[in-house]
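Sequence, structure tokens quoted for completeness.
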Amino acid sequence: MDRKTARQRAEELVRKMTIEERASQLRYDAPAIERLGVPAYNWWNEALHGVARAGTATMFPQAIGLGAAFDGPMMAEIGACIGTEGRAKFNEQSARGDRDIYKGLTFWSPNVNIFRDPRWGRGHETYGEDPTLTGSLAAEFIKGLQGDGAYMRAAACAKHFAAHSGPEAQRHGFDAKVTPRDLEETYLPAFEACVKEGRVEAVMGAYNRTNGEVCCGSPALQKILREDWGFEGHYVSDCGAVKDFHEHHGITGRPEESVKLALENGTDVNCGCTYQKILNALKEGILDEKYVTESCIRLFTTRFLLGLFDKTEFDSLGQLDVETEEHLALSERAARESMVLLKNDGLLPLDLQGLSVVGVIGPNADSRAALMGNYHGTASRYITILEGIQDAAGPAGVRVLYSQGCHLFGERAESLSQGGYIDRLAEAQAVAAHSDVVVMVLGLDETLEGEEGDAGNAYASGDKRDLRLPAPQEKLMETILGCGKPVVLINMTGSAVDLGVAQEKAGALLQAWYPGPRGGRAAADILFGRVSPSGKLPVTFYKGTEDLPDFTDYSMEGRTYRFYRGEPLYPFGFGLTYGNCRVTGASWAETDPERLSLRVAMRGGERETEEVLQVYVKAEEAPCAPPNPVLAAFKRVRLGPGEEKTVTVPLPGRCLTTVDEAGKRALRGRRFTFYAGFCQPDERSAQLGGGAPAQAELVL
């Protein structure tokens, strides 16, 4: 159904409603209107990396891991899988009268905020720190989720509009002060891609203010969204954000005034309870009912686009379409593609035929929580790193020894043992002593980095205070790295942490993120060489926070690979493979800015592998260009042993533009340098073994 028809049907239905009924439909938990045949509908559902919080569904790696895969086509497949399973679960649940929260077809995903600071607890919900990567992956995810059939498969929602990335503890009253340049250059592009390329059906406003205006009641943001970009869908508040207007921001004095501000500035559905005051605001005469009517029409337009009042091509989907073998295989593939090999001195891949005993040590080695990230659903089976290693080593006759090593963050694993982080340390040392090689699995989980209210122990409201691993893990790492045995460190975090000691002393280092319920099998596939690692970092791993700006500073100066002037521990875009592939040359296939494309030649290495070709651009004559080359495009390629291949990479004309201090994006200058390789064109990537990119000059 086209949007024009859906809106006409919505207008006709809304015309039949009383004002009380229209107001009721603007709540996230909209009640039924039985006299009009309108069933109850709950707008709140989640699908960050699989249908969440509603029982069994196929779960994928946490979003930051999907970012590390640098795989747009796979994101479309994942979106389609989630949309299909969401529709299947909706059919089964609504047929049985269950229209509760997390049971609808409006998924509040993806999170396209920019992971600008490694301390932000929710950064692992994003695709990383780069606007181009984020926007590209999000648009593909949205296309897959919503589909292109007669009706929408499900409705996606890009969040949190617009400048939102912590601190979590301050989000309800925080004012993100953003320059026009940073807004246009960094904070808006991914949302623009979601609207213009993904045709996203919904956008969620953030809790905070941006430049003084609350994001769920902002004339400036609505102008960008609806007038400049042509967004036609509906706008939803973050949960409790409208209440924050009067309770935390102090820009209104009471709920009725907050209702007025939100509705007059485009917030159609309220996640929270403040819209229960709509009728009060109407009665007082401070709110024109035309705003209620327009929001109601927008919301029912979405419901008609989803076919919720018609028979659709999705009606036959049911429980047998959830967690299918095809979907589970896609989840495992995503996990394999997401993992990033940061160091390898030749230790990997491990040869099972040459091993007798493998030691597995660490608090995340047998942790299901470390597989899942946050905003997750429920899998029918989980394979931890330990279990994946056991499943691979057992048939080869290799013994696997295991020790937890330490608590994830506390002083002791057993409540009655003495403190000092030592109650599992001797066991870990014993395991290492009897092993040929040690796989040490450290990191965090959603209890240590996450959303405000979700986190525990020392971390403030879900944010990290610094980049250090918890103290017991640092002690365990120091001990095991000094045991004299070869050590592979697997780090399971959703963000950058300080791995400097591991970089110095471990034989190999694998960043596994939160890889999903079967992540242990994917890790084992990489450890034992069944597949080559191929992920790339979607964020910069800094050596610490000492040279980063204050967490509350939303200026991009000194942040992310585009503006950071120091030496990182591991750069954005970096990741090793077992293939040792190289780019051998770059030349222009088309130099017209409207059809720009680069021809890149490459050669495979010792074994078959996938690689991520990355193209960066530096505007040589634009004074407002970022100090470092910027990602322009990327493409996954497969190379056989010694294979020579040439691929053509289309480049958007936008990559030639720069943004000035007034926030104006334009083509400036005539000379550009493009770099094509399997990493950034920076010294640190080269030092770590990333290989030298090829260069191509463009003069317009």
Summary: Residues 455-460 have pLDDT under 50 and may be disordered. The chain has three domains: 3-321, 339-539, 582-699. Residues 72-95 form the longest helix (24 residues). The longest strand covers residues 609-619.
